Amino acid sequence: MLKFYYTKLSVNARRIWVSLLEKNLEFEPILLKLNGDQFQPEFTKINPFHHIPVLVDDDFTVIESLAILDYLEAKYPDPSFLPSAEPKSIAKMRSLELVTVNELPPASIVIMREMLELPVENKKLEIAKKQIGAVLQYFEDNLAENSPYFFGERLTLADIVAGTAVPSIPFLGISFDGYPKVKQWCEGLQKRASWQQTEPTEEELMRSKAILKAILERK
Ligand SMILES: N[C@@H](CCC(=O)N[C@@H](CS)C(=O)NCC(=O)O)C(=O)O
Question: Does position 219 have pLDDT exceeding 80, yes or no?
Answer without folding.
Answer: no
